[in-house]
Design a protein that fits this description.
CATH superfamily of the largest domain: Aminohydrolase, N-terminal nucleophile (Ntn) domain
CATH architecture of the largest domain: 4-Layer Sandwich
Helix content: 40-55%
Mean pLDDT: 92
Shape: globular
Strand order of the largest sheet: 2-3-1-9-8-10
Number of domains: 4
Structural class: alpha+beta
Radius of gyration: 24 Å
Low-confidence stretches: none
Number of strands: 17
Strand content: 5-15%
Distance between the termini: 38 Å
Largest sheet: 6 strands, antiparallel
CATH class of the largest domain: Alpha Beta
CATH topology of the largest domain: Glutamine Phosphoribosylpyrophosphate, subunit 1, domain 1
Protein backbone atom coordinates (compact mmCIF):
# COMPACT_ATOMS: atom_id res chain seq x y z
CA UNK A 1 0.00 0.00 0.00
CA UNK A 2 1.34 3.37 -0.96
CA UNK A 3 0.52 6.75 -2.40
CA UNK A 4 1.31 7.80 -5.95
CA UNK A 5 2.00 11.13 -7.66
CA UNK A 6 2.46 12.04 -11.31
CA UNK A 7 2.81 14.90 -13.77
CA UNK A 8 3.03 14.68 -17.54
CA UNK A 9 3.50 17.98 -19.37
CA UNK A 10 1.60 17.65 -22.63
CA UNK A 11 3.37 20.73 -23.99
CA UNK A 12 6.67 18.83 -23.53
CA UNK A 13 7.95 21.28 -20.92
CA UNK A 14 10.47 19.65 -18.55
CA UNK A 15 8.89 18.14 -15.44
CA UNK A 16 10.14 19.47 -12.11
CA UNK A 17 11.43 17.11 -9.43
CA UNK A 18 10.50 19.49 -6.63
CA UNK A 19 6.86 19.48 -7.79
CA UNK A 20 6.63 15.72 -7.25
CA UNK A 21 8.45 16.12 -3.95
CA UNK A 22 5.70 18.45 -2.73
CA UNK A 23 3.01 16.01 -3.89
CA UNK A 24 4.74 13.19 -2.03
CA UNK A 25 4.98 15.21 1.18
CA UNK A 26 1.23 15.82 1.18
CA UNK A 27 0.55 12.06 1.30
CA UNK A 28 3.30 11.02 3.71
CA UNK A 29 0.58 9.43 5.87
CA UNK A 30 -0.16 6.98 3.04
CA UNK A 31 3.44 5.79 2.94
CA UNK A 32 5.62 6.65 5.95
CA UNK A 33 8.17 3.88 5.23
CA UNK A 34 9.88 5.56 2.27
CA UNK A 35 9.48 7.75 -0.77
CA UNK A 36 10.95 8.10 -4.22
CA UNK A 37 10.91 10.24 -7.37
CA UNK A 38 11.52 9.57 -11.05
CA UNK A 39 11.92 12.36 -13.63
CA UNK A 40 12.53 12.07 -17.37
CA UNK A 41 11.93 14.93 -19.75
CA UNK A 42 8.25 15.92 -19.45
CA UNK A 43 7.28 13.13 -17.03
CA UNK A 44 7.68 12.93 -13.26
CA UNK A 45 6.45 10.12 -11.01
CA UNK A 46 6.44 9.82 -7.23
CA UNK A 47 5.63 7.31 -4.53
CA UNK A 48 5.32 7.12 -0.76
CA UNK A 49 5.58 3.57 0.57
CA UNK A 50 3.78 1.65 3.28
CA UNK A 51 5.89 -1.51 3.36
CA UNK A 52 3.71 -4.64 3.48
CA UNK A 53 5.28 -7.20 1.13
CA UNK A 54 9.09 -7.48 0.92
CA UNK A 55 10.07 -4.84 3.44
CA UNK A 56 13.55 -4.32 1.95
CA UNK A 57 14.64 -1.21 0.06
CA UNK A 58 14.91 -3.35 -3.09
CA UNK A 59 11.10 -3.18 -3.24
CA UNK A 60 10.94 0.62 -3.05
CA UNK A 61 9.34 2.71 -5.78
CA UNK A 62 9.47 4.12 -8.38
CA UNK A 63 10.69 0.73 -9.61
CA UNK A 64 12.41 -0.03 -12.92
CA UNK A 65 12.35 -3.30 -14.81
CA UNK A 66 15.61 -5.15 -15.47
CA UNK A 67 16.15 -3.38 -18.81
CA UNK A 68 15.49 0.09 -17.44
CA UNK A 69 12.84 0.72 -20.09
CA UNK A 70 9.79 0.65 -17.83
CA UNK A 71 9.18 2.41 -14.51
CA UNK A 72 6.17 2.00 -12.23
CA UNK A 73 4.50 3.75 -9.31
CA UNK A 74 1.73 1.76 -7.71
CA UNK A 75 -0.68 1.86 -4.79
CA UNK A 76 -2.41 -1.32 -3.66
CA UNK A 77 -1.83 -5.04 -3.36
CA UNK A 78 -2.00 -7.89 -5.89
CA UNK A 79 -3.03 -10.91 -3.87
CA UNK A 80 -2.32 -13.55 -6.52
CA UNK A 81 1.20 -12.24 -7.08
CA UNK A 82 2.72 -15.55 -5.97
CA UNK A 83 0.98 -17.49 -8.74
CA UNK A 84 1.68 -14.76 -11.31
CA UNK A 85 5.34 -14.66 -10.33
CA UNK A 86 5.63 -18.41 -10.86
CA UNK A 87 3.97 -18.06 -14.26
CA UNK A 88 6.53 -15.43 -15.26
CA UNK A 89 9.44 -17.47 -13.91
CA UNK A 90 8.38 -20.31 -16.20
CA UNK A 91 8.54 -17.85 -19.10
CA UNK A 92 12.13 -16.98 -18.21
CA UNK A 93 11.65 -13.75 -16.29
CA UNK A 94 14.03 -12.97 -13.45
CA UNK A 95 13.22 -10.98 -10.33
CA UNK A 96 15.30 -8.68 -8.16
CA UNK A 97 12.94 -8.72 -5.18
CA UNK A 98 9.89 -10.50 -3.76
CA UNK A 99 7.38 -7.67 -4.19
CA UNK A 100 4.11 -7.70 -6.06
CA UNK A 101 5.22 -4.44 -7.72
CA UNK A 102 7.87 -6.17 -9.81
CA UNK A 103 5.33 -8.83 -10.78
CA UNK A 104 3.05 -6.14 -12.25
CA UNK A 105 5.96 -4.58 -14.10
CA UNK A 106 6.97 -7.86 -15.73
CA UNK A 107 3.35 -8.74 -16.50
CA UNK A 108 3.05 -5.45 -18.36
CA UNK A 109 6.20 -6.29 -20.34
CA UNK A 110 4.70 -9.66 -21.27
CA UNK A 111 1.04 -8.81 -21.88
CA UNK A 112 0.79 -5.04 -22.21
CA UNK A 113 -2.47 -3.53 -20.96
CA UNK A 114 -4.09 -6.99 -21.02
CA UNK A 115 -2.13 -7.72 -17.83
CA UNK A 116 -4.92 -6.00 -15.88
CA UNK A 117 -7.20 -8.99 -16.42
CA UNK A 118 -4.71 -11.26 -14.67
CA UNK A 119 -4.54 -9.18 -11.49
CA UNK A 120 -6.55 -10.15 -8.42
CA UNK A 121 -6.44 -7.25 -6.02
CA UNK A 122 -6.75 -3.52 -5.60
CA UNK A 123 -4.63 -0.93 -7.33
CA UNK A 124 -4.05 2.47 -8.82
CA UNK A 125 -0.87 2.54 -10.89
CA UNK A 126 1.11 4.29 -13.59
CA UNK A 127 3.78 2.77 -15.86
CA UNK A 128 6.05 4.91 -18.04
CA UNK A 129 7.57 3.37 -21.17
CA UNK A 130 10.77 5.34 -21.81
CA UNK A 131 11.22 3.97 -25.32
CA UNK A 132 7.68 4.51 -26.64
CA UNK A 133 7.12 7.62 -24.51
CA UNK A 134 3.81 6.17 -23.36
CA UNK A 135 2.14 6.59 -19.98
CA UNK A 136 -0.27 3.85 -18.90
CA UNK A 137 -2.49 4.32 -15.83
CA UNK A 138 -4.97 1.84 -14.39
CA UNK A 139 -7.53 1.57 -11.60
CA UNK A 140 -8.79 -1.73 -10.20
CA UNK A 141 -12.09 -3.31 -11.19
CA UNK A 142 -14.24 -1.97 -8.36
CA UNK A 143 -12.40 1.24 -7.50
CA UNK A 144 -10.98 0.15 -4.15
CA UNK A 145 -7.91 2.36 -4.55
CA UNK A 146 -8.30 6.02 -5.57
CA UNK A 147 -6.98 7.75 -8.68
CA UNK A 148 -7.68 11.48 -9.07
CA UNK A 149 -6.57 13.56 -12.03
CA UNK A 150 -6.59 17.00 -13.64
CA UNK A 151 -6.31 17.44 -17.39
CA UNK A 152 -5.96 20.53 -19.55
CA UNK A 153 -4.17 21.28 -22.82
CA UNK A 154 -0.80 21.49 -21.08
CA UNK A 155 -0.80 19.04 -18.17
CA UNK A 156 -2.01 15.69 -16.91
CA UNK A 157 -1.64 15.60 -13.12
CA UNK A 158 -2.66 12.61 -11.03
CA UNK A 159 -2.44 11.34 -7.48
CA UNK A 160 -3.91 9.23 -4.73
CA UNK A 161 -5.44 12.34 -3.18
CA UNK A 162 -6.94 15.59 -4.44
CA UNK A 163 -4.75 17.85 -2.32
CA UNK A 164 -1.70 16.77 -4.31
CA UNK A 165 -3.20 18.24 -7.47
CA UNK A 166 -3.89 21.59 -5.81
CA UNK A 167 -0.22 21.83 -4.87
CA UNK A 168 0.48 22.31 -8.59
CA UNK A 169 -1.44 25.56 -8.87
CA UNK A 170 -4.77 24.08 -9.95
CA UNK A 171 -7.64 26.33 -8.87
CA UNK A 172 -9.86 25.17 -6.00
CA UNK A 173 -13.47 25.83 -6.97
CA UNK A 174 -16.55 24.08 -5.54
CA UNK A 175 -18.61 22.15 -8.07
CA UNK A 176 -22.20 23.32 -7.60
CA UNK A 177 -23.89 20.37 -9.29
CA UNK A 178 -22.03 17.89 -7.11
CA UNK A 179 -22.95 19.92 -4.03
CA UNK A 180 -26.60 19.94 -5.14
CA UNK A 181 -26.62 16.14 -5.51
CA UNK A 182 -25.03 15.80 -2.07
CA UNK A 183 -27.33 18.17 -0.19
CA UNK A 184 -30.60 17.24 -1.87
CA UNK A 185 -30.14 13.58 -2.85
CA UNK A 186 -27.46 12.36 -0.43
CA UNK A 187 -25.41 11.35 -3.50
CA UNK A 188 -21.63 11.33 -3.41
CA UNK A 189 -19.06 9.56 -5.56
CA UNK A 190 -21.88 8.68 -7.98
CA UNK A 191 -20.01 9.82 -11.08
CA UNK A 192 -16.52 10.87 -12.21
CA UNK A 193 -16.84 14.42 -10.92
CA UNK A 194 -15.55 15.39 -7.47
CA UNK A 195 -16.69 18.28 -5.26
CA UNK A 196 -14.00 20.37 -6.99
CA UNK A 197 -14.45 21.66 -10.52
CA UNK A 198 -12.11 20.07 -13.06
CA UNK A 199 -10.82 17.41 -10.64
CA UNK A 200 -12.02 14.00 -11.73
CA UNK A 201 -11.89 10.41 -10.54
CA UNK A 202 -10.74 7.71 -12.90
CA UNK A 203 -13.76 5.37 -12.78
CA UNK A 204 -13.46 1.85 -11.43
CA UNK A 205 -12.17 -0.55 -14.09
CA UNK A 206 -10.83 2.25 -16.29
CA UNK A 207 -7.43 3.05 -17.80
CA UNK A 208 -5.60 6.07 -19.20
CA UNK A 209 -3.12 5.81 -22.07
CA UNK A 210 -1.15 8.88 -23.15
CA UNK A 211 1.00 8.65 -26.27
CA UNK A 212 2.15 11.48 -28.53
CA UNK A 213 0.31 13.75 -26.08
CA UNK A 214 -2.97 12.11 -27.07
CA UNK A 215 -4.97 11.25 -23.93
CA UNK A 216 -7.36 8.31 -24.11
CA UNK A 217 -9.55 7.32 -21.14
CA UNK A 218 -11.43 4.04 -21.54
CA UNK A 219 -12.95 1.16 -19.63
CA UNK A 220 -11.03 -2.11 -19.46
CA UNK A 221 -13.42 -4.12 -17.22
CA UNK A 222 -17.14 -4.79 -17.45
CA UNK A 223 -19.23 -6.85 -15.06
CA UNK A 224 -22.20 -8.68 -16.56
CA UNK A 225 -25.00 -10.76 -15.12
CA UNK A 226 -24.85 -14.19 -16.72
CA UNK A 227 -27.35 -16.13 -14.66
CA UNK A 228 -26.86 -19.89 -14.59
CA UNK A 229 -29.28 -22.75 -14.09
CA UNK A 230 -28.57 -24.33 -10.72
CA UNK A 231 -28.94 -28.11 -10.78
CA UNK A 232 -27.08 -28.88 -7.54
CA UNK A 233 -27.65 -26.52 -4.62
CA UNK A 234 -25.08 -28.19 -2.39
CA UNK A 235 -22.43 -27.70 -5.06
CA UNK A 236 -23.43 -24.04 -5.38
CA UNK A 237 -22.91 -23.45 -1.67
CA UNK A 238 -19.64 -25.40 -1.73
CA UNK A 239 -18.38 -23.36 -4.69
CA UNK A 240 -19.28 -20.14 -2.90
CA UNK A 241 -17.54 -21.29 0.27
CA UNK A 242 -14.39 -22.26 -1.63
CA UNK A 243 -14.25 -18.83 -3.28
CA UNK A 244 -14.70 -16.77 -0.11
CA UNK A 245 -12.26 -19.06 1.73
CA UNK A 246 -9.60 -18.60 -0.94
CA UNK A 247 -10.25 -14.88 -1.11
CA UNK A 248 -9.53 -14.55 2.60
CA UNK A 249 -6.54 -16.90 2.31
CA UNK A 250 -4.69 -14.89 -0.32
CA UNK A 251 -5.52 -11.63 1.46
CA UNK A 252 -3.56 -12.90 4.45
CA UNK A 253 -0.37 -12.78 2.37
CA UNK A 254 1.79 -10.21 4.09
CA UNK A 255 5.18 -9.70 5.67
CA UNK A 256 3.51 -7.83 8.54
CA UNK A 257 0.75 -8.89 10.93
CA UNK A 258 -2.85 -8.87 9.66
CA UNK A 259 -5.86 -8.06 11.86
CA UNK A 260 -9.58 -7.70 11.14
CA UNK A 261 -12.48 -5.35 11.73
CA UNK A 262 -15.36 -7.08 13.54
CA UNK A 263 -18.84 -5.61 13.87
CA UNK A 264 -20.72 -8.72 14.94
CA UNK A 265 -22.54 -8.91 11.62
CA UNK A 266 -22.62 -11.69 9.06
CA UNK A 267 -19.86 -10.31 6.82
CA UNK A 268 -17.14 -9.48 9.32
CA UNK A 269 -17.91 -12.60 11.37
CA UNK A 270 -17.47 -14.71 8.24
CA UNK A 271 -14.08 -13.14 7.59
CA UNK A 272 -12.81 -13.54 11.15
CA UNK A 273 -13.98 -17.16 11.43
CA UNK A 274 -12.47 -18.09 8.06
CA UNK A 275 -9.27 -16.30 8.97
CA UNK A 276 -9.08 -18.40 12.14
CA UNK A 277 -9.66 -21.64 10.20
CA UNK A 278 -7.05 -20.75 7.57
CA UNK A 279 -4.37 -19.96 10.13
CA UNK A 280 -5.18 -23.20 11.95
CA UNK A 281 -5.10 -25.26 8.74
CA UNK A 282 -1.72 -23.75 7.84
CA UNK A 283 -0.34 -24.71 11.25
CA UNK A 284 0.03 -21.14 12.44
CA UNK A 285 -0.55 -20.22 16.06
CA UNK A 286 -1.13 -16.52 15.46
CA UNK A 287 -3.82 -14.94 17.63
CA UNK A 288 -5.94 -12.62 15.53
CA UNK A 289 -6.50 -9.06 16.59
CA UNK A 290 -10.04 -7.77 16.02
CA UNK A 291 -11.34 -4.21 16.27
CA UNK A 292 -14.87 -3.16 17.19
CA UNK A 293 -16.66 0.15 17.73
CA UNK A 294 -18.82 -0.25 20.86
CA UNK A 295 -21.42 1.92 22.58
CA UNK A 296 -23.03 2.20 26.00
CA UNK A 297 -26.42 2.48 24.28
CA UNK A 298 -27.76 -1.11 23.97
CA UNK A 299 -29.70 -0.11 20.85
CA UNK A 300 -26.39 0.46 19.05
CA UNK A 301 -24.02 -1.92 20.82
CA UNK A 302 -23.20 -5.29 19.22
CA UNK A 303 -20.69 -6.74 21.67
CA UNK A 304 -23.04 -9.67 22.41
CA UNK A 305 -22.48 -10.97 18.88
CA UNK A 306 -18.83 -9.97 18.76
CA UNK A 307 -18.14 -12.01 21.90
CA UNK A 308 -19.62 -15.11 20.26
CA UNK A 309 -17.10 -14.81 17.42
CA UNK A 310 -14.26 -14.11 19.84
CA UNK A 311 -15.12 -17.19 21.88
CA UNK A 312 -15.17 -19.37 18.77
CA UNK A 313 -11.89 -18.06 17.35
CA UNK A 314 -9.98 -17.17 20.53
CA UNK A 315 -9.17 -13.80 18.96
CA UNK A 316 -7.78 -10.81 20.80
CA UNK A 317 -10.34 -8.02 21.12
CA UNK A 318 -9.87 -4.28 20.89
CA UNK A 319 -12.98 -2.32 21.78
CA UNK A 320 -13.14 1.41 21.19
CA UNK A 321 -15.86 3.82 22.22
CA UNK A 322 -16.47 6.74 19.82
CA UNK A 323 -17.79 9.83 21.61
CA UNK A 324 -18.90 13.31 20.64
CA UNK A 325 -15.84 14.88 22.28
CA UNK A 326 -13.62 13.03 19.83
CA UNK A 327 -15.84 13.99 16.92
CA UNK A 328 -15.40 17.62 17.93
CA UNK A 329 -11.61 17.44 18.26
CA UNK A 330 -10.99 15.30 15.15
CA UNK A 331 -13.62 16.68 12.77
CA UNK A 332 -11.42 19.17 10.93
CA UNK A 333 -8.62 16.66 10.50
CA UNK A 334 -11.08 14.05 9.29
CA UNK A 335 -12.48 16.47 6.68
CA UNK A 336 -8.93 17.23 5.52
CA UNK A 337 -8.23 13.53 4.99
CA UNK A 338 -11.60 12.73 3.38
CA UNK A 339 -11.14 15.76 1.08
CA UNK A 340 -14.82 15.78 0.15
CA UNK A 341 -17.97 16.00 2.30
CA UNK A 342 -19.47 12.84 3.77
CA UNK A 343 -23.01 11.91 4.67
CA UNK A 344 -23.09 10.83 8.31
CA UNK A 345 -21.18 10.75 11.58
CA UNK A 346 -20.68 7.00 11.17
CA UNK A 347 -17.55 7.95 9.23
CA UNK A 348 -16.12 9.15 12.53
CA UNK A 349 -16.75 5.75 14.14
CA UNK A 350 -14.78 4.12 11.33
CA UNK A 351 -12.07 6.76 11.81
CA UNK A 352 -11.82 5.68 15.46
CA UNK A 353 -11.48 2.02 14.47
CA UNK A 354 -8.50 2.71 12.20
CA UNK A 355 -6.96 4.99 14.80
CA UNK A 356 -7.07 2.12 17.31
CA UNK A 357 -5.65 -0.28 14.71
CA UNK A 358 -2.71 2.06 14.14
CA UNK A 359 -2.14 2.54 17.88
CA UNK A 360 -1.96 -1.24 18.37
CA UNK A 361 0.80 -1.56 15.77
CA UNK A 362 -1.18 -3.27 13.00
CA UNK A 363 -0.64 -2.17 9.38
CA UNK A 364 -3.10 -4.50 7.57
CA UNK A 365 -6.72 -5.47 8.33
CA UNK A 366 -9.49 -7.34 6.55
CA UNK A 367 -12.94 -5.78 6.30
CA UNK A 368 -16.34 -6.67 4.84
CA UNK A 369 -17.06 -3.84 2.39
CA UNK A 370 -18.83 -4.88 -0.79
CA UNK A 371 -20.91 -7.74 0.58
CA UNK A 372 -24.16 -5.77 0.86
CA UNK A 373 -23.92 -4.55 -2.72
CA UNK A 374 -23.14 -7.86 -4.39
CA UNK A 375 -25.22 -10.17 -2.16
CA UNK A 376 -28.32 -7.94 -2.03
CA UNK A 377 -27.86 -7.25 1.66
CA UNK A 378 -29.54 -3.85 1.85
CA UNK A 379 -33.22 -3.65 2.74
CA UNK A 380 -33.74 -1.45 -0.33
CA UNK A 381 -33.20 -4.53 -2.51
CA UNK A 382 -36.14 -6.34 -0.93
CA UNK A 383 -38.94 -4.31 -2.62
CA UNK A 384 -37.34 -4.88 -6.04
CA UNK A 385 -37.10 -8.60 -5.32
CA UNK A 386 -40.77 -8.70 -4.33
CA UNK A 387 -41.73 -6.79 -7.45
CA UNK A 388 -40.36 -9.70 -9.50
CA UNK A 389 -42.77 -12.07 -7.72
CA UNK A 390 -46.00 -10.18 -8.35
CA UNK A 391 -46.88 -12.52 -11.22
CA UNK A 392 -47.13 -15.29 -8.59
CA UNK A 393 -49.50 -14.03 -5.85
CA UNK A 394 -48.83 -16.93 -3.49
CA UNK A 395 -45.07 -16.61 -3.68
CA UNK A 396 -45.32 -12.82 -3.42
CA UNK A 397 -47.48 -12.98 -0.28
CA UNK A 398 -45.26 -15.61 1.33
CA UNK A 399 -42.04 -13.68 0.67
CA UNK A 400 -43.68 -10.41 1.70
CA UNK A 401 -44.71 -11.73 5.12
CA UNK A 402 -41.37 -13.44 5.70
CA UNK A 403 -39.64 -10.17 4.82
CA UNK A 404 -41.71 -8.39 7.46
CA UNK A 405 -40.42 -10.90 10.00
CA UNK A 406 -36.72 -10.97 9.13
CA UNK A 407 -36.37 -7.20 8.70
CA UNK A 408 -38.35 -6.54 11.89
CA UNK A 409 -39.88 -3.45 10.31
CA UNK A 410 -43.52 -4.21 10.99
CA UNK A 411 -46.24 -4.70 8.39
CA UNK A 412 -47.13 -1.02 7.92
CA UNK A 413 -43.56 0.25 7.51
CA UNK A 414 -42.59 -2.67 5.29
CA UNK A 415 -45.62 -2.01 3.05
CA UNK A 416 -44.78 1.68 2.81
CA UNK A 417 -41.19 0.84 1.92
CA UNK A 418 -42.32 -1.49 -0.85
CA UNK A 419 -44.27 1.34 -2.49
CA UNK A 420 -41.61 4.00 -1.79
CA UNK A 421 -38.62 2.16 -3.24
CA UNK A 422 -40.55 1.22 -6.37
CA UNK A 423 -41.72 4.81 -7.00
CA UNK A 424 -38.87 7.10 -8.15
CA UNK A 425 -41.20 10.07 -8.69
CA UNK A 426 -42.46 9.85 -5.10
CA UNK A 427 -38.89 9.61 -3.83
CA UNK A 428 -37.85 12.63 -5.88
CA UNK A 429 -40.66 14.81 -4.51
CA UNK A 430 -39.87 13.58 -1.01
CA UNK A 431 -36.21 14.65 -1.08
CA UNK A 432 -37.08 18.06 -2.54
CA UNK A 433 -39.68 18.67 0.17
CA UNK A 434 -37.28 17.51 2.88
CA UNK A 435 -34.64 20.05 1.94
CA UNK A 436 -36.75 23.12 1.30
CA UNK A 437 -36.12 24.60 4.77
CA UNK A 438 -32.41 23.85 4.89
CA UNK A 439 -31.21 25.02 1.51
CA UNK A 440 -31.36 28.32 -0.33
CA UNK A 441 -34.34 28.50 -2.64
CA UNK A 442 -32.40 30.22 -5.43
CA UNK A 443 -29.75 27.49 -5.40
CA UNK A 444 -32.32 24.68 -5.42
CA UNK A 445 -34.34 26.27 -8.21
CA UNK A 446 -31.27 26.99 -10.32
CA UNK A 447 -30.75 23.30 -11.11
CA UNK A 448 -32.93 20.54 -12.45
CA UNK A 449 -31.17 17.33 -11.45
CA UNK A 450 -34.18 15.03 -11.72
CA UNK A 451 -32.53 13.09 -14.53
CA UNK A 452 -29.46 12.47 -12.35
CA UNK A 453 -31.67 11.34 -9.47
CA UNK A 454 -33.64 8.92 -11.62
CA UNK A 455 -30.49 7.64 -13.32
CA UNK A 456 -29.17 6.51 -9.94
CA UNK A 457 -32.38 5.80 -8.03
CA UNK A 458 -34.92 5.05 -10.73
CA UNK A 459 -33.95 1.45 -11.35
CA UNK A 460 -36.81 -0.48 -12.90
CA UNK A 461 -35.72 -3.89 -11.64
CA UNK A 462 -33.47 -5.72 -9.21
CA UNK A 463 -30.61 -6.11 -11.67
CA UNK A 464 -30.40 -2.38 -12.41
CA UNK A 465 -30.71 -1.55 -8.73
CA UNK A 466 -27.80 -3.81 -7.82
CA UNK A 467 -25.65 -2.30 -10.58
CA UNK A 468 -26.52 1.21 -9.38
CA UNK A 469 -25.48 0.34 -5.82
CA UNK A 470 -22.25 -1.25 -7.00
CA UNK A 471 -21.11 1.49 -9.39
CA UNK A 472 -22.85 4.67 -8.23
CA UNK A 473 -24.92 5.19 -5.12
CA UNK A 474 -23.40 2.99 -2.42
CA UNK A 475 -20.09 1.19 -2.85
CA UNK A 476 -17.98 4.05 -4.32
CA UNK A 477 -18.58 6.29 -1.31
CA UNK A 478 -17.96 3.46 1.18
CA UNK A 479 -14.68 2.64 -0.54
CA UNK A 480 -13.65 6.30 -0.45
CA UNK A 481 -14.43 6.57 3.26
CA UNK A 482 -12.51 3.40 4.05
CA UNK A 483 -9.47 4.27 1.96
CA UNK A 484 -9.15 7.80 3.35
CA UNK A 485 -9.81 6.79 6.97
CA UNK A 486 -7.45 3.82 6.89
CA UNK A 487 -4.65 5.63 5.11
CA UNK A 488 -4.92 8.60 7.47
CA UNK A 489 -3.43 6.18 10.00
CA UNK A 490 -1.14 4.31 7.59
CA UNK A 491 -3.29 1.17 7.61
CA UNK A 492 -4.11 -1.02 4.61
CA UNK A 493 -7.69 -2.35 4.42
CA UNK A 494 -8.24 -5.51 2.37
CA UNK A 495 -11.72 -6.51 1.22
CA UNK A 496 -12.30 -10.25 0.61
CA UNK A 497 -15.85 -9.81 -0.71
CA UNK A 498 -14.49 -7.78 -3.63
CA UNK A 499 -12.34 -10.57 -5.02
CA UNK A 500 -13.39 -10.45 -8.68
CA UNK A 501 -13.75 -14.24 -8.86
CA UNK A 502 -16.30 -14.13 -6.06
CA UNK A 503 -18.13 -11.09 -7.44
CA UNK A 504 -18.45 -12.62 -10.91
CA UNK A 505 -19.64 -15.91 -9.42
CA UNK A 506 -22.31 -14.13 -7.37
CA UNK A 507 -23.45 -12.24 -10.47
CA UNK A 508 -24.13 -15.60 -12.11
CA UNK A 509 -26.39 -16.83 -9.29
CA UNK A 510 -30.18 -16.59 -9.71
CA UNK A 511 -31.74 -14.10 -7.31
CA UNK A 512 -33.61 -16.79 -5.39
CA UNK A 513 -30.24 -17.87 -3.97
CA UNK A 514 -29.54 -14.35 -2.76
CA UNK A 515 -32.95 -13.57 -1.21
CA UNK A 516 -35.09 -16.44 0.02
CA UNK A 517 -37.65 -17.03 2.77
CA UNK A 518 -37.28 -13.43 3.86
CA UNK A 519 -33.50 -13.70 4.25
CA UNK A 520 -30.99 -11.58 2.36
CA UNK A 521 -27.51 -12.95 1.52
CA UNK A 522 -29.03 -16.42 1.50
CA UNK A 523 -26.11 -18.11 -0.26
CA UNK A 524 -23.68 -16.72 2.31
CA UNK A 525 -25.84 -17.88 5.21
CA UNK A 526 -26.13 -21.38 3.77
CA UNK A 527 -22.44 -21.61 2.92
CA UNK A 528 -21.39 -20.61 6.43
CA UNK A 529 -23.41 -23.27 8.28
CA UNK A 530 -21.26 -24.70 11.09
CA UNK A 531 -18.62 -22.04 10.34
CA UNK A 532 -19.97 -19.04 12.25
CA UNK A 533 -22.19 -18.80 15.36
CA UNK A 534 -25.83 -19.57 14.56
CA UNK A 535 -27.07 -16.43 16.31
CA UNK A 536 -25.13 -14.42 13.75
CA UNK A 537 -25.85 -16.61 10.73
CA UNK A 538 -29.59 -16.30 11.32
CA UNK A 539 -29.57 -12.85 12.84
CA UNK A 540 -32.56 -10.61 12.12
CA UNK A 541 -32.50 -6.83 11.84
CA UNK A 542 -28.73 -6.32 11.74
CA UNK A 543 -27.76 -2.76 12.57
CA UNK A 544 -25.99 -0.70 9.96
CA UNK A 545 -22.69 0.87 11.05
CA UNK A 546 -24.80 3.12 13.28
CA UNK A 547 -23.89 5.94 15.65
CA UNK A 548 -25.97 8.19 17.96
CA UNK A 549 -25.72 11.04 15.47
CA UNK A 550 -28.47 13.30 16.80
CA UNK A 551 -27.17 12.93 20.36
CA UNK A 552 -23.64 13.79 19.26
CA UNK A 553 -24.79 16.86 17.35
CA UNK A 554 -26.58 18.13 20.44
CA UNK A 555 -23.49 17.56 22.58
CA UNK A 556 -21.29 19.61 20.22
CA UNK A 557 -23.92 22.29 19.54
CA UNK A 558 -21.61 25.16 20.57
CA UNK A 559 -18.98 23.99 18.07
CA UNK A 560 -21.63 23.72 15.36
CA UNK A 561 -22.99 27.21 16.02
CA UNK A 562 -19.47 28.67 16.00
CA UNK A 563 -18.78 26.92 12.70
CA UNK A 564 -21.90 28.43 11.14
CA UNK A 565 -21.50 31.91 12.62
CA UNK A 566 -17.77 32.45 12.02
CA UNK A 567 -17.21 33.64 8.41
CA UNK A 568 -20.03 31.55 6.95
CA UNK A 569 -18.86 30.29 3.53
CA UNK A 570 -21.69 28.15 2.21
CA UNK A 571 -24.36 30.84 2.11
CA UNK A 572 -24.97 30.18 -1.58
CA UNK A 573 -26.22 26.70 -0.71
CA UNK A 574 -27.51 26.70 2.87
CA UNK A 575 -30.17 28.80 4.60
CA UNK A 576 -28.11 29.34 7.74
CA UNK A 577 -30.71 31.06 9.91
CA UNK A 578 -33.43 28.53 9.22
CA UNK A 579 -31.06 25.58 9.62
CA UNK A 580 -29.79 26.84 12.99
CA UNK A 581 -33.31 27.65 14.16
CA UNK A 582 -34.46 24.12 13.39
CA UNK A 583 -31.32 22.66 14.98
CA UNK A 584 -31.72 24.65 18.20
CA UNK A 585 -35.40 23.75 18.36
CA UNK A 586 -34.50 20.06 18.39
CA UNK A 587 -37.17 19.06 15.87
CA UNK A 588 -35.02 18.66 12.77
CA UNK A 589 -33.77 16.10 10.28
CA UNK A 590 -30.30 15.26 11.58
CA UNK A 591 -29.26 13.66 8.27
CA UNK A 592 -29.93 16.86 6.32
CA UNK A 593 -28.37 19.04 8.98
CA UNK A 594 -25.24 16.91 9.20
CA UNK A 595 -24.71 17.30 5.46
CA UNK A 596 -25.14 21.08 5.71
CA UNK A 597 -22.73 21.28 8.66
CA UNK A 598 -20.15 19.07 6.95
CA UNK A 599 -20.31 21.15 3.78
CA UNK A 600 -19.63 24.35 5.74
CA UNK A 601 -16.70 22.73 7.59
CA UNK A 602 -15.31 21.39 4.30
CA UNK A 603 -15.39 24.85 2.75
CA UNK A 604 -13.53 26.25 5.75
CA UNK A 605 -10.90 23.48 5.85
CA UNK A 606 -10.10 23.94 2.15
CA UNK A 607 -10.59 27.73 2.24
CA UNK A 608 -13.26 27.72 -0.46
CA UNK A 609 -15.60 30.47 -1.56
CA UNK A 610 -18.92 29.90 -3.28
CA UNK A 611 -19.18 31.88 -6.49
Amino acid sequence: MCGISGIMNLNNAPAAENAIGIMNELIHHRGPDGDGIFVQDNVALGNTRLAIIDLRHEADQPMHDSTGRYVIVYNGEIFNYVELRNELLEKGYKFNNNSDTEVILNLYKEYGTECQHKLNGMWALAIWDKKEKTLFCSRDRYGIKPFYYYLDNNRFIFGSEIKQIFSQGVEKTPDDETIYDYLLFNFIDHNEQTFFKNIRKLPAGYQVIIKNNNVRVSGWYKLNENLIDVTDEKKLYKDFYDLIYDSVRIRLRSDVEVGSCLSGGLDSSTIVCLMHDILKNEGKTDIQKTYTAAYDDPALDERKYVEEVLNQTNSAKYYLFPESSGLLSDFGRMVWHQEEPFTSASIYAQWCVFKKIHESGIKVVLDGQGSDEILLGYFSFFPFYLKRLMYNPFKFASSFLKGVGTTQQGLMKFSQSFVYFNSPSIRYKHVLNEGENFYNEDFVNNYNRKAVFEQNIGAKNLSANRMANLWNISLPSLLRYEDKNSMAFSVEARLPFLDHRLVEFIFSIPYDYLIRNGWTKFVLRESMKNEIPEDIRLRKGKLAFSVPQKKWLKEISSFIEDTFNDDFKSGKYINKNTALKLFNGGNYNDKLFFRAFTLEKWMKVFNLQSE
